[in-house]
Amino acid sequence: MRISTFFYTIKQGIVNIWKNKLFSLASIATMTACIFLFGLFYMIVVNFQSMVKDAESGVAVTVLFDEGISDQRIEEIGELISERPEVSHYDFISADEAWESFKEVYFEGNEAAAASFAGDNPLANSASYAIYMNDISMQDSLVTYLKSVDGVREVKQSQQVANTLTDFNSLIGYISAGVILILLGVAVFLISNTITVGISVRKEEIAIMKLIGATDYFVRAPFVVEGIVIGLIGAAIPLGILYALYGKIVMYISDKFSFISNMMKFLSVNEIFHNLIPVALILGVGIGFIGSRITIRKHLRV
Q1: Interaxial angle between packed helices 216-256 and 269-299, expressed in degrees from 0 to 180 and rounded to the nearest 10
Q2: How far apart are the first and last CA of the chain?
Q3: Which terminus of the chain, N or C, has less C-beta within 10 A?
């Protein structure tokens, strides 16, 4: 495509927006509202996912060893565990460490009872590995494998906690998909209406262009540009608003609803917008492009 044609296409797309100011503003406003709601929902979902991830990181699978197992075999089991894709990291807890931890919990305030076990560790065979996972939903496959490892006496897992966290993650995913689809449908519909008006206004001009040999691409391109520009503007505005509001929203929630801030740690504005900015811009441009393409194909016989 020649440079002159490229700039003509850009110019005509912007001129179309200006000619249909009322409908263009309506489309931009709707796109802004849709992307704003998407961004707001995205921030909520990402923070909840972070909370779930933090909760998952504290759920461990405990591996207990056969009585009389050698230190070398324990190290070999550790190496086997480290090679598993489900495993994030693991910690070795010796029998003495297990006993010290037990005393702190069950003999708090009754040190005399704990002292009666001096020199005698009731948990002498309780050395273990505490294994933490990348994804809690992979717990069952890891437990099945660990039970088959020679030298492993018992594997303890938090099945109910794992199921709850996995179900919660799935619920967030389904709700997110539903909301995004609704917002996409509304935005595409409105941009489609704006492009339709632009086509109606320029019907005679388009017919003349076709008569003098204008290509299909030459006729379609300005309307595609129009949709993309509307989508881009409609995405940029809510991003700016959300960027300015996010810190204030987090501060307000922390002040007014302290129990929420105690339950979860909010992500920083940079962590949120690192992904939100490209996603929202691509979403806006994509909606504009798809909306304009669908409308052009439907209304133009070119």
Answers
A1: 150
A2: 19
A3: N
pTM for this prediction: 0.64
Kindly state the tokens that stand for 150.
Answer: 């020679």
Mean pLDDT of the chain: 76
Spatial CB neighbours of 229, under 8 Å, sequence gap ≥ 6: 13, 14, 17, 288
pLDDT in tens, 143-167: 888 888 888 888 887 766 666 777 7
CA dihedral 113, 119, 125, 129 (to 10 degrees): 80
Task: Transcribe 114-152 into DSSP letters.
Answer: HHTTTT--TTTT--EEEEEES-GGGHHHHHHHHHTSTTE
* Axis-axis angle for helices 159-201, 216-256 (nearest 10): 140
Out of 58-72, 79-93, 151-165, 225-239, which region has the weakest mean confidence (pLDDT)? 151-165
| Record: fold of 60-157 | Alpha-Beta Plaits (3.30.70)
188's enclosing H/E stretch is: helix 159-201
The span from the CA of 253 to the CA of 260, in Å, is 8
Percent of the residues in the chain that have a pLDDT greater than 90, as a whole number: 2
The rounded distance, in Å, linking the Cα atoms of 88 and 60 is 10
In the chain, list all ranges with CATH 3.30.70.3040.
60-157
